[in-house]
Fold this sequence. Notes:
This protein has 316 residues and is mainly beta.
Amino acid sequence: MNLLEEFQLTSVSGRIETAVPPGVAPGAVPNPFGPLAHLPGTWKGRGFNQIWRPFHGSQDRFLELNETIEVLQFEEIPGDIPNRGLLQGDINLHGVRYLQQIQDAHVKGPNGKLAGIHIEPGIWLSTPACTNPSDPATVARMASIPHGTTLVAQGATLAAINHAPPIPPVSITPFIINHPNQPVQFPESNLGIPSTFRTPHADIPNVTQAMVNNPNVVLSQAIAGQTITSTITLKVSTNPLNPPSSGGGTSNIAFLQGAAGGPNAQSVKVDSTFWIETVKEPNGATKLQLQYSQLVLLNFNGLSWPHVTVATLVKQ
Length: 316
């Protein structure tokens, strides 16, 4: 059974139960959670994180690189979530809440345990087609980041494919704000050039130049040699994606926005793609795997600085 066929199923406490009432032909009643029905449970794995941090000192930037360990937990929100309409009839949303926790794979904190670098509570929503606005069915991700940013990213579920996903490259090169075709190169991106403004090699022993040039290579390497029989793609953005969605945005605390000469480090855009994959193992068993690539643009000192996070997680 591939993921597209499984859209008629709901995962409950590790079991797969039918969402089709007795006496109704299979496929007649679609699961209102759509692809989100595959998410409830605990996913664990490893990844890679890159961020240009503002630096208050002799230069404006520090390139932080992290090899990561991640736990991502989802829990279904039971029942309908009614949204009342004025310009059109009411709609019902369906969602799952999540908690994402990321640790550095090598660096330890003052307590002697692996340092935490990210925690994020949030919600994924499945939204039916609307007439006002005229949007097709979408998915949306709402996230809260303790640095002082919240976001709503909305977008599409792409049609299922029966093979591994095509994973495009992503660049960490900063560019002039609102001008992505005007990149600005910095020496910290070259691991061959020593720098005190980049994470030391001892803290990132497995990071290569290829990973810095294109963090998504970590995802491609993780699935090399795997037999992936089905992939569902969730693609969301805080910027309107027309089609399929006209919603989304970010909000930042005053410190991030800054004042004269600011911002300090304002999150202005988040694009993320999640791939839900069915992997056939050599013994014939299958497992669910979740890969994602997220690009955040941080604006400071006249440039947009890409912040990229990727990971490959397996459902437990």
